[in-house]
Amino acid sequence: MMRPLASHSGIRTLLRVLLAVGAVRCQDFNIPQSWRKPTSSLSLAQRVSLASNAISPLVTSINPSNGTNYELNTWQSAGLLASIAQLDYVSGAQNNHELVQQSVSAFQSSHLAFFDSQLPRNVTSDPLMWGLAAYYGARAYNDTVLLDTSKSIWSSVQTYVVSAQNGASGTQATKNGTFSASCLSNSNYTSAGAVFWQATIPNNYMSNAETVGAYVALSAHLWEATRDTEYLDSAAQSAQFMYNYLYSNELQIIWDTFDLKACTVSQLNWTYNQGFLMEGLSILSSAPVISNTTWTSLLRTLVSSTTLFPAWTSPNGTNAGVLIEASNINPRVNSVLFDYRNVFINALLEIWARIPSNDPMAAFIEAFVIVQFNALQDLAYNHDTYSPVWTGPQLPQMVPWGQLAAIPVLSAAIKMAPSPTSNGTATSTPSSPAATSGAASSSSGSLSGGAIAGIVIGAGGVLALVAASVILVRRHKRQRASEENEQQAAVQPFMPSAVYRQPAGTAESVRQLPADYSRKDRHGYGSGQRYVGSPLLTVPDSEEPPSALPTGGQATSTDFLYEVIEQVMDRMRGREEPPAYTGQ
Fold first, then answer.
1. Which of 179, 275, 331, 552 could make a disulfide contact with 344, Cβ separation 3.0–4.6 Å?
2. At what angle do helices 340-354 and 74-91 cross, to 10 degrees?
3. Quick one: how far is CA 334 from the chain centroid?
4. What span, in angstroms and rounded, lies between the C-alpha atoms of 107 and 516?
C-alpha cells in the first residue's frame, strides 16, 4: 500500500510536536524499564557452551556436495554459513574453517554466479548473501580464498547496479525500457546506487532493501578489508539511495521496495531491511567520506527507532522488548521470515563492537540483545533446541530454521559476555540508570533546568493531545471520502536530504510492489516444496509481514494520530517514562 499522505497544516504541526518529543526521547538511549530481563550474569564459558550446542546439529546437516542444508532455502543456507563463521569469529575459534570454505566452494561449483534456481529465479539478493557469508568466513579465518570469492561476487553484482550515468539517463543495460531520472523533487538525487532485485526480468525495475542493503553492507566490509575506495564509494552511493527512496521520515524505518519506473515505494517492513543498511552504516559512519556525520546521525536514529518498533518488537506486557517478527507463523514449517532477525542482530553486534563502551547506545544495544538472549533461554529453549518463535512455546524437536534464528543472538551474547573480575567471578551486564534507578526525586526545593524542561515537554504533550482530539473530532464529523495527497512531515534528529515526489497509485497496483512476497515460501534446497506462483503473487496471509499501518485499505492520517495519541496517553498513565533531561 502507498505511503499515507495528508495536507492539513494543523496535522503537520501536531506531528512535528509529537515526533520531536519522541525523537528526543529515543536519542537518550535510556533502557526501557518494561523490557523483559535486559541483563544476564552467565559467564563467557556458559554462553560459548550454549552457542556450540545450538549450532552443532546445523554443522552436520550441511550437504557437502552443494554446501546447503536441504531443509533451508539457499538464502538461508548462505546465512547459515555466515552464522557459523560469525560464531567462530566472536569465539576466537577456527573450528569450522574447512567447512565454511568447502561449502562456499561447493555451492559455487553448481551455481557459478551464486544465483539460485529456486523460484523466483535469479534474484540478486542471493549472491549478495553468499558474498557476505564468504566475507564473514574470510574475516573469521583470515582466509584470502574466501575474501577473493566475496570480491568476485561483488564484481558480478555490478551488472545490476544503477550507476551515476544510469541514474542520470534513466537507462540500465539489464532493462529494456527507461525509468525516471529522479523520483524526487530535488533533481540532484537520481536513482544511482539502486540494485535491481530481478536480474533476468528486463521489465522489472524494483530495488528492495534486501538487495541494495546487502550490497551496502558487503561493499563497506570489502572497503574495510582492502581499503579500495571503489568499495567505499559504492557503499556510500547505495546508502544514499536507500536514504532518499526507502527511508520513512515519519516512522524512521526502512521500507521494503522501491520501483524506479513507477516511482512508488511499498510500505512493507521487516527487520532485515533495517539490518543490512545499519550494518553498512556502522562502517560508513567512521569512514573517510564527507557524509560520515550524516551516516552517524542516521545510524543512531535507526538504532533507537528500529529496536523499539512495535511491528516486530513487543512494546509492553510480559514479553516487552522481545522480537516477535513472524511469531504468527507455524514454527514447525520453514519460513525465511524466521531468519530475517539474523541480519538485524548481526547489525546491532557490528555497531556495538565499533562504538565506545561508554556510549549510551552501546549499553542500549547490549540490553536489547540480552533481552532476546534471555527470551531464547526461558521461553524458546528445549534441550539445546530453539523455537523460531522466541516467545514460545518450545518445540519437541529441533528445526533448522529455529536453530539458525537463535545463533546470531547467542554469538552476540558471547561478544558481550561480562569480563571476569580479579576474584574469578563475572560481572553482570550493566544497565543504564533508566533501567535500574527508577524515578529519583531531588531533595532540593528548587527545580533544575532539566526538570523545568521536562515539565514544559509534558505540558506540550497534553496540549498536543488536546489539539489532536479536536482535529480528530472535526475530521470524523466531515467524514471525508478520500485522503489528501501531500506527504506528512516529521521532525528528524537530522535534516532529510530529499523530499518525495510520489505519484498517486491504487492499492492494487502497489500490492504488486513487494518483491519479497514471492520468496517467502521458498523452503528447502532441491525440495519439492517450491513456490511455483508468479513472482509477483502474494504469499498466504499467515506470512503477511507486520505493517506499521492498518491493513485493508489506505492508511489515514487519522489512524496515525490515534497511534501517536495512544503513545502520549501511555506516558501519562505511567506505562512509559517521559524523556530524560540533564540540567545544565
1. 275
2. 30
3. 20
4. 23
Pair 109, 67: CB distance under 8 Å: no
Predicted pLDDT of residue 291: 81
What secondary structure letter does DSSP report for 377? I
pLDDT at 140: 99
Radius of gyration of the chain (CA): 23
d(CA 250, CA 492): 8
Indicate if the alpha-carbon torsion angle 504, 507, 512, 513 is positive or negative: positive
Which residue from 5, 7, 14, 6 is spatially nearest to 470, judged by alpha carbons?
14
User: Alpha-carbon distance 136 to 218, whole Å?
Assistant: 10
Query: What's the rounded Cα separation, in Å, for the pair 46 and 61?
Result: 24
CATH topology of domain 31-424+512-549: Glycosyltransferase (1.50.10)
- Write down the residue that cell numbers 527507461 correspond to: 178
Query: Strand, coil or helix: what is 198?
Result: strand
Residues in the chain with pLDDT values less than 50: 1-25, 422, 428-584
H helices of 192-339, where? Answer: 209-226, 229-245, 271-284, 292-307
Residue 145 region by backbone torsions, left for phi larger than 0, else alpha for psi between -120 and 50, else beta: alpha
pTM of the predicted model as reported, rounded to 2 decimal places = 0.74
Show the DSSP H helices in 416-542 as ranges: 433-436, 449-478, 507-511
Return the domain boundaries, the chain.
31-424+512-549
